[in-house]
């Protein structure tokens, strides 16, 4: 080879780059005609990148599925603790609706990473919002407010509303009590106890007791005697006399007239008020109620007001208190205490047979086990299921001083006073005294004394007695109702006095109106 050809060949070799300098990714088929070890390595890497693992393929969908399930669990976990409870009060005024909306927003974001369900995602994203809001239902509810109590006053020591001293164990009746008595006569319906219910929605689940005044009336029309008085002349209509032999209470009747006579006598439970009506309606056209005494031309009743023990149950409707008298008892130690019905021969408050100054009774349902055991050890016989009241021998006055000067024994749950040991808690004891009962018994003879005369165009008699006459429609039912209202009015007066004699009130539950939530998980 000549020198010129050799130079040309060297120049050609210098212009051609080395084969190994070409990157494998840029080599042509000609360049890779003879694969090398590097070529095999890079080929394996390409195959690994082109074939990802199954886990790496499903990892996004698994994460999205877990997120969706977590949000559904969060919805249930948020609503369930507040099921049928008031709306939760969270910081920053965060409402439960807002939290549910956040959950469903995250849930919708999660299902977008589920390509396996394809177009279903679009449909789900559209309907999730309205269905999500339907999960929660709001409704009005009443929730117990434990920070407050409802109260109804009781009277554990009988308050007679007495005035100044006028005799041995005898006081006058105060003006307020007199007003209460007249209110009971005039009013058409019984008053309501002065209760305290802060929200207007309260319940008193337990019965409660109180001292008070009770009434009892008897229809004694069958005892009336009718006597015709001879007329003075043939032109005069003979008058008629109606008489009660027990007291000689008499009503003398002229033609077309009527007389309602009042009288009193002493009975075993206090003063008995008698009412006697007689009419001579010949020639009149007045029509009366069917049960009115005037329809039969005569009638009579006798009633008494006595100190008693009552048990009540209470309900409320639209903020109005409805108090029901469950039992009335005369249980002061001189009668059968195993029943709630007054005995037929209790003591006479005005007689010398009432030797005890204080009369005390126990609410048996109030007793705890140690108190009941103590009473039985002292010889008291009673049943915790059948006995309402139990007369208790206590010679000291029961006042709020018993609470102020008492010491409590934690083992026996007893209370003692500085005056005399009283191993029964004061809230279980009820008491009256001779001065109160005698003074109240002394008042009716002055109140129910007189007559009501009725004739065409005229009516004569005290106003409060005219109210019992009821324009001639007086009947046993109306008399019984009047005396019942009178006793209730006297009792409510005593229960409403803010004195030491009105003690621990009956406690009730207070409920407040609120908005509650419930989960409708079917949605």
TrEMBL record:
Residues 338-354, 401-420 have a biased composition (Low complexity). Residues 1-36, 334-354, 401-422 are annotated as: Disordered. Residues 1-10, 25-36 have a biased composition (Polar residues). It comes from the Eukaryota. Keywords: Membrane, Transmembrane, Transmembrane helix. It comes from Cercophora scortea. The chain crosses the membrane at residues 55-79, 99-128. This is Uncharacterized protein.
């Amino acid at each position: 080879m000549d020198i010129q050809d050799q130079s040309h060949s060297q120049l050609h070799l210098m212009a051609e780059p080395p084969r190994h300098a070409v990157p494998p990714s840029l080599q042509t088929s000609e360049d890779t005609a003879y694969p090398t070890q590097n070529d095999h390595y890079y080929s394996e890497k390409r195959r690994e990148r082109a074939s990802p693992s199954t886990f790496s393929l499903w990892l996004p969908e698994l994460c999205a599925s877990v997120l969706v399930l977590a949000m559904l669990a969060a919805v249930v976990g948020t609503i369930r603790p507040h099921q049928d409870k008031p709306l939760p009060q969270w910081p920053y005024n965060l409402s439960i609706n807002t939290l549910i909306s956040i959950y469903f927003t995250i849930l919708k974001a999660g299902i977008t990473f589920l390509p396996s369900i394809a177009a279903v995602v679009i449909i789900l994203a559209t309907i999730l919002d309205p269905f999500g809001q339907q999960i929660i239902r709001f409704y009005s509810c009443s929730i117990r407010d434990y920070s407050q109590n409802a109260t109804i006053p009781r009277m554990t020591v009988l308050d007679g509303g007495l005035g100044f001293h006028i005799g041995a164990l005898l006081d006058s009746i105060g003006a307020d009590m007199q007003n209460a008595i007249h209110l009971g006569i005039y009013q058409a319906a019984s008053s309501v106890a002065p209760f305290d219910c802060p929200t207007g929605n309260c319940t008193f689940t337990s019965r409660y007791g109180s001292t008070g005044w009770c009434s009892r009336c008897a229809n004694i029309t069958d005892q009336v005697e009718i006597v015709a008085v001879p007329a003075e002349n043939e032109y005069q209509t003979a008058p008629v006399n109606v008489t009660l032999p027990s007291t000689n209470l008499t009503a003398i009747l002229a033609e077309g007239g009527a007389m309602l006579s009042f009288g009193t006598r002493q009975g075993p439970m206090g003063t008995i008020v008698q009412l006697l009506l007689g009419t001579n309606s010949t020639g009149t056209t007045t029509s009366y109620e069917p049960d009115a005494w005037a329809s039969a031309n005569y009638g009579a009743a006798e009633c008494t007001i006595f100190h008693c023990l009552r048990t009540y149950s209470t309900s409320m409707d639209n903020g109005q208190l409805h108090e029901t008298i469950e039992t009335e008892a005369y249980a002061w130690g001189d009668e059968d205490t195993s029943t709630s019905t007054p005995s037929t021969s209790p003591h006479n408050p005005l007689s010398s047979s009432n030797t005890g100054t204080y009369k005390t009774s126990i609410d048996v349902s109030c007793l705890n086990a140690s108190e009941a055991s103590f009473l039985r050890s002292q010889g008291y016989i009673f049943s915790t299921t059948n006995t309402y009241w139990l007369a208790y021998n206590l010679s000291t006055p029961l006042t709020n001083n018993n609470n102020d000067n008492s010491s409590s024994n934690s083992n026996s749950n007893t209370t003692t006073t500085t005056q005399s040991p009283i191993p029964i808690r004061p809230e279980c004891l009820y008491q009256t005294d001779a001065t109160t009962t005698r003074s109240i018994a002394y008042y009716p003879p002055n109140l129910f004394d007189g007559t009501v005369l009725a004739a065409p165009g005229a009516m004569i008699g005290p106003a409060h007695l005219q109210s019992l006459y009821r324009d001639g429609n007086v009947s046993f039912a109306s008399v019984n109702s009047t005396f019942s209202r009178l006793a209730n009015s006297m009792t409510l007066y005593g229960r409403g006095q803010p004195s030491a004699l009105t003690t621990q009130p009956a406690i009730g539950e207070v409920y407040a109106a609120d908005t509650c939530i419930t989960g409708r998980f079917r949605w």
